[in-house]
Write a structure and sequence with these properties.
alpha+beta, 5-stranded antiparallel beta sheet, about 15% strand
Length: about 170
């Protein structure tokens, strides 16, 4: 079983409802995922995004830059008694999504991996192990680019974000 980083864009009203009713939130997540799995919308309009298994790699790389927002796990807990795969979900309010979007745009993937050796990820136990290949750091590039686009679209729409590991 894999650990996958998951994201869902929410309006402010939807976020309020999710916080008040975590069961509704989980149902809404599943509804959006099912609908978008069929239609595969562009990131500019997508409500759901996944960083696949790169979530821990991106966490490691972003932590090295002292990134201002936790775009991997979220910042504010809710549904703390729930397990959405690997623990409860968290969220980012719209102002944190805007801050994250700007910081993601300002930080290229080349900057993230500059000076990093794959052995550092192995030593740190970064999921999913297997960083022996010299070019292994390139694996995260398309996921980081997608995350940047997804946050940018959410920020332009003034959306909040749910984040969880599944």
């Amino acid at each position: 079983m894999s650990m996958i980083g998951e994201y869902l864009r929410l309006t402010a009203a939807e976020l309020d409802r999710a916080i008040q009713d975590p069961d509704w939130a989980l149902g809404f997540v599943e509804e959006v995922q099912d609908a978008e799995e069929e239609k595969k919308p562009e990131l500019a309009v997508a409500r759901h995004f996944s960083t696949y298994k790169t979530w821990d790699m991106l966490r490691f790389l972003l932590a090295r830059t002292e990134f201002p927002v936790n775009v991997i796990h979220g910042e504010e807990p809710f549904a703390e008694g729930e397990d959405w795969g690997y623990g409860p979900p968290r969220y980012l309010r719209p102002e944190r999504v805007r801050l994250a979007a700007g910081a993601l745009r300002a930080t290229s993937y080349a900057q993230l991996i500059s000076g990093v050796e794959p052995a550092e990820l192995t030593s740190a136990g970064v999921y999913p192990l297997g960083w022996a290949e010299a070019n292994s750091l390139e694996w995260g590039r398309p996921w980081y680019d997608g995350l940047t686009q997804f946050f940018d679209a959410a920020a332009r729409a003034d959306d909040a974000m749910l984040l969880w590991l599944d």
